[in-house]
Specification:
six-stranded mixed β-sheet
């Protein structure tokens, strides 16, 4: 069999800095071969199976690149890494830091998903923390602070010329004494001690406040006798400013509200008096607390860790951020839905020890009009719910109540064994499998929670983010964030993974899907000057998607990286800048360099 050892083109040696030079490689079945791999180019290593392609690409070039990187670390850092043996090769020069992307899914982390593996979720957390709007879990109203500008805009929309006071409540730092009458058992709040009160008023005057307000009356510090009329056992307010509704007073109003927030523990009160125009007296209260204005429920302001299911601050407290819990599996409790209650549809109640409970359940079912001779699957959803959840009004605890009762007897070995027969993984009832606590799910961007965005496929997410409309202020904050998200979604789409949902667990991906996700992540990292070694990335791809893969490899090359691909696909070989052919056979018959050069030269 006539073979070409090396073409004349490759005899022209490139400068060392322009290529990776391998001399005398003898790993596995390689026959002391020498070859050059150009930098900033796509090089395909091809040949029959077993000819030594992976031995050259992974066990020689990649292994040496990794070994040299580890050797560059300190002795302290190296002790935590496994020792890497030097490949059996005479010399390798010009090698770059190597990254291997294998046709294998080695992820076993139950928390990792497509969004976290591609860093999309990190940017989503940042987007929702900075631009998300929180809505009350109880009433659905938007949770927000009362900003001074928003308050000013609201006040200036009222009737022109209407007069009002800007106030904040006077709080004296002294424990309120409570006097309890023996006859009426009525609690009354006493005024603070005179010395504490005197010091508080002096401090107030030093800070520039000279008026108090109570029950519609203003009490001046300049006339101390008026202070005698103030009942300090009742709420007393500090008068910050007196204003009228007009556009010129906007800046003054904003400043007054900010003073109230600073001095009044985050609260401001606007008191409107009745006027001749028929406007009634009214009091408007504002605060800078992040709370629901309807029911007063306080919420934490969104921050990135609130949206992390790897952090106790944001993870669902029931399932600890896994999305499922070990609970009683209905498929094990009712293994055969074609059975009726009479035939023993409820498996745990068919055991002799619990036959009494079975009889009581049938008696209760007949009393509620639930047929016991009808297959389980033909019962209505409400009837099945009552059998499982129980009916406290009729002293029936249900199947769940039965297991709850058994839980209290887990100290007995036979009870633990019995319970284990009916347990399995179930979707967390509290978070519905979304893995985040309710406060995180209450934050929305464009009427979608972060959990709803993660349920979208890559294709749907690209449409969502391309059409996303934000306010001008939010757009300035989120412009770079959205750019990163859109870029990574584009890379996932280009490698043919547009059908994957962002919350798909990476442990459920095939080897090819995992490899292409690593490709998309590498593109998103914008790493320059690296050596990427890929193992047959076209496996599992439809022929129409091969060109998209080739475009990804070219993008990696154009960023300034060297791409080394083990491949059999003719389209990928044709698109390569350099082709290395090993053979002629497999095993002992292989390991020889048959060709090294460009694709046209090989023809």
């Amino acid at each position: 069999m006539a073979t070409i050892e090396i073409i004349p083109e490759s005899t022209v040696a490139r400068p060392e800095q322009e290529s990776i030079r391998v001399r005398g490689a003898r790993v596995h079945n390689l026959k002391n071969i020498s070859v050059e791999i150009p930098h900033n180019a796509i090089t395909v290593v091809t040949g029959v199976s077993g000819s030594g392609k992976s031995s050259l690409a992974f066990d020689t070039i990649y292994a040496e690149g990794q070994r040299r990187y580890v050797e560059s670390l300190s002795a302290y850092a190296r002790q935590f890494l496994e020792r890497m043996e030097k490949p059996d090769v005479d010399e390798i020069s010009g090698i770059a830091p190597a990254v291997a992307i294998r046709q294998k899914n080695s992820t076993r982390n139950p928390r990792s998903n497509v969004a976290t593996a591609t860093e999309i979720y990190d940017y989503l957390r940042l987007l929702f923390a900075r631009c998300g709007q929180t809505f009350c879990i109880k009433c659905g109203a938007q949770v927000r602070k009362d900003s001074p500008d928003e308050i000013a805009t609201r006040i200036l929309s009222l009737a022109h010329g209407r007069r009002f006071y800007v106030l904040h409540q006077l709080r004296i730092a002294a424990p309120a004494a409570a006097a309890v009458s023996k006859r009426s058992i009525k609690r009354t709040v006493a005024a603070p001690p005179p010395d504490v009160l005197r010091q508080a008023l002096l401090d107030l005057q030093k800070r520039g406040f000279n008026r108090l307000y109570q029950d519609g009356r203003i009490h001046e510090f300049s006339t101390p006798e008026t202070l005698l009329d103030v009942d300090f056992s009742k709420p007393v307010y500090v008068l910050v400013d007196r204003l009228a509704v007009n556009a010129e007073s906007r800046a003054r109003l904003v400043d007054s509200i900010e003073i109230c927030y600073r001095e009044g523990q985050g609260e401001a009160i606007l008191e409107f008096a009745a006027d001749s125009a028929g406007n009634p007296a009214e009091r408007l209260s504002f605060n800078e607390r992040f709370e629901c204005k309807n029911d007063g429920t306080l919420y934490q302001e969104p921050e990135p860790r609130l949206f992390s299911f790897n952090n106790p601050y944001g993870a669902c407290p029931r399932c600890q951020g896994f999305g499922n819990t070990i609970d009683f599996d209905l498929n094990l409790v009712v293994p055969d839905p074609s059975k009726s209650l009479d035939d023993g549809a409820i498996e745990p109640w068919t055991k002799p020890r619990y036959r009494v409970l079975f009889q009581e359940a049938k008696k209760w079912a007949r009393g509620r009009g639930i047929p016991t001779n009808v297959p389980w699957r033909q019962l209505t959803a409400e009837q099945r719910r009552l059998i499982l959840d129980g009916d406290p009004q009729n002293d029936y605890k249900g199947v769940k109540g039965f297991f709850t009762w058994l839980e209290r007897k887990k100290y007995k070995l036979h009870v633990r064994v019995f319970l284990s027969r009916f347990r399995g993984y179930a979707t967390c009832p509290e978070c519905g499998g979304t893995r985040l606590r309710a406060e995180a799910r209450a934050v929305r961007v464009a009427e979608k929670a972060i959990t709803e965005v993660c349920k979208l496929t890559v294709k749907e997410a690209r449409v969502f983010f391309s059409a996303l409309q934000l306010s001008e202020g939010h757009l300035k904050i989120a412009d770079r964030i959205l750019e990163e998200i859109r870029t990574r979604l584009q890379f996932l789409d280009e490698v043919g993974l547009d059908y994957l949902s962002l919350d798909r667990l990476t442990s459920t991906l095939s080897g090819g899907e995992s490899q292409r996700i690593q490709l998309a992540t590498s593109l998103g990292s914008h790493l320059v000057g690296a050596l990427y070694v890929l193992d047959e990335p076209s496996i599992g791809l439809h022929p129409r998607d091969t060109q998209r893969l080739i475009d990804i490899l070219k993008s990696l090359r154009d960023l300034g990286n060297t791409v080394l691909v083990v491949e059999h696909d003719p389209d990928t070989i044709q698109a390569a800048d350099c082709v290395i052919d090993l053979g002629p056979g497999a095993g002992e018959l292989g390991g020889k360099l048959l060709f090294a050069g460009s694709y046209p030269a090989m023809l």
